[in-house]
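Sequence, please.
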């Protein structure tokens, strides 16, 4: 059971309770209906209704009762925890690790390790992934600890309120900074590979070259949208595929995966207005590549 408390400020006085929970606090319409129907919302200690009008100084208490069963086996997998609070856990995922169990990867996933961590620390949580990374992409993954936190974080991602920065080592010499604004989609329904296609979804990637030589470049990338394989597709399309990316580029002698790392996330705390900034240093295999190309 999660107990969440909100204080009504002057700016929110006069708003309906349901609108406050939905538009200011990130609750879904479905969850609001559930908690109000089951008498799980209180204003100043009294059961509240969805159409109650808020006053400055009101204390809103929300009780969320969840089914916290999940078919993910805890496994003692070391986790590189970058940040944790009452609502989220941020982990630096190593390369070659799947984030969630699938038919072909039933164990050894990030979710198995997170479930073990929740069990060991006596946190009655299930694994709710807010963002995902490809198996071969390393870096920061956010796990929400409740349905409320998951919805709030998902809304931040949807509204482009989470700053997502990556580092990539790409083929060839790139220079300066710029924006790639090109739509992406599958060329066919059974295709794993994506491509730039006129009828696709809009995808925006901002880039800035950190250092480069005639062989490779280290590039910082800021995602404004979050399409599948977006960075890999965009960089390949402009003639600078990520080093080691065999799907969109070429095999590398120095790294056996795409040299892509989700290194920075900035987001607002689920409860409160303070910002959280998480960073994960480049993994050893990418540092080794930079050394091989004299870009360390």
């Amino acid at each position: 059971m999660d107990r969440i408390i909100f204080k009504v400020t002057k700016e929110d006085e006069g708003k309906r309770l349901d609108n406050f929970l939905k538009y200011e606090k990130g609750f879904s319409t479905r969850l609001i209906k559930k908690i109000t129907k089951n008498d799980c919302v209180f204003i100043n200690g009294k059961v509240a209704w969805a159409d109650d009008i808020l006053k400055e100084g009101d204390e809103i208490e929300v009780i969320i009762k969840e089914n916290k069963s999940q078919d993910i086996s805890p496994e003692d997998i070391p986790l590189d925890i970058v940040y944790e609070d009452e609502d989220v856990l941020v982990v630096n995922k190593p390369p070659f690790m799947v984030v969630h169990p699938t038919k072909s990867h039933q164990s050894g996933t990030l979710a198995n390790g997170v479930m073990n961590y929740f069990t060991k620390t006596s946190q009655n949580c299930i694994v709710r992934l807010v963002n995902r990374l490809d198996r071969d992409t390393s870096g920061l993954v956010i796990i929400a600890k409740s349905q409320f936190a998951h919805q709030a974080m998902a809304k931040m991602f949807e509204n482009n309120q989470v700053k997502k920065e990556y580092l990539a080592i790409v083929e060839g010499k790139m220079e300066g900074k710029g924006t790639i604004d090109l739509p992406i989609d599958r060329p066919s329904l059974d295709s794993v590979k994506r491509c730039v296609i006129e009828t696709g979804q809009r995808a925006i990637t901002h880039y800035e070259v950190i250092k480069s030589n005639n062989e490779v470049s280290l590039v910082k990338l800021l995602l404004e949208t979050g399409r599948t394989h977006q960075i890999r597709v965009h960089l390949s399309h402009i003639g600078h595929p990520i080093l080691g990316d065999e799907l969109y580029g070429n095999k590398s002698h120095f790294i056996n995966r795409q040299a892509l790392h989700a290194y920075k996330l900035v987001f607002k705390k689920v409860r409160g207005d303070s910002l959280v900034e998480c960073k994960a240093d480049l993994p050893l295999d990418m540092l080794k590549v930079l050394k091989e190309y004299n870009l360390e």
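The two ends are 49 Å apart (CA to CA).
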